[in-house]
Amino acid sequence: MKKVNIHQIKPGDKLAKPILQDNGNVLLGVGVELNERFIDRLRKLGIDVLFVEDAFTDDLEPPEAISEKTRQKAVNAIYQTMANLKDQNFMKGKAVAPEMGRQLRQVFGEILNDVMVRGDVMVNLTNIHTTDAYLFQHSVNVAVLSGIIGIAKGYNRMQLEELGIGALLFDIGMTKVPSQLINKQEALTDAERAVVAKHTTDGFDILRKQHDISLLSAHCALQHHERFDGSGYPRGLKGDEIHLHAQIVGLADMYDALTSPRPHRKRYTPSEAIELIFAAGNTYFDFELVKLFCKHISVYPVATSVLLNTGQIAVVSANNSLAVHRPIVRVVEEADGSRPASPYEIDLKNEVSILIVKEL
């Protein structure tokens, strides 16, 4: 399979990975043949990239951080939790959901099991979803990334659970933000930004009332927008005043937000997002935490289409753990636009004069 921009999709292309709805269920499954109507509908749903089948790359499959079954179960759990809170109107301020902690502790346990089985492989987050599904898929991605960093830091099971529950629920305060602000395509006004910013304290107020959720987990909701230099909100905390759980969740939140399409901007590529985050060391986040995070992220995920400085188009076939910016690529189109008689690979770690110009 290969990942391509939706503008490069042609009628007759077949999906190699499913497209997910907001509740985690499949909207379009593997093997569906795309036509003009499908392609136009997907654009309107905010989908900008797709994984499609390709004869030259049919053996390539990005290593998933978690299985599709685990992801679907986790997304559905987040969806149901947030939907129930909205339906109950937060029980007029009480917002008590006795089963919340138990259910999500089980969900995060399955995420952890998948991550541990997967081993020490650089993370690819390859799920494709509609714009409406962003909040729920984003929460799961943040939990996956946070769990990986927690494991790398040597956290014990209790610490991992506190971090994981906090990561799954860190944005729960967004259930009190009007949907027109969440999906607004223009820049927010100062008043609108203030409404959105309240999701940190609202989320903390919801979680601290849950009898089976740790106060440290609740602080992930409260502090995930605090920044290492004191420029964040809601309290302008700095340095070690910000709990490490919240720093990890905040870092994972920024990375996944940058690499996801949003109503007001295009997505950043993983390499662009890593560059921005690395530059934020000791400004937005502790630099040692940033370095640890970047060691576990794939800069050029497998199946990514790239343009080389030779004019050739290639697809990333494998990552080099010792040279993350120099993956192995498979050439699928020559500089003159012709297709090779058969695919062949270039190890960029060894071919120092060949560079990746951009992702396609």
Automatic annotation (TrEMBL):
Residues 104-309 form the HD-GYP domain. InterPro entries: HD/PDEase_dom, HD_GYP_dom. Pfam families: HD_5 (PF13487). It comes from Paenibacillus terricola. Transmembrane segments: none annotated. It comes from the Bacteria. This is HD-GYP domain-containing protein.
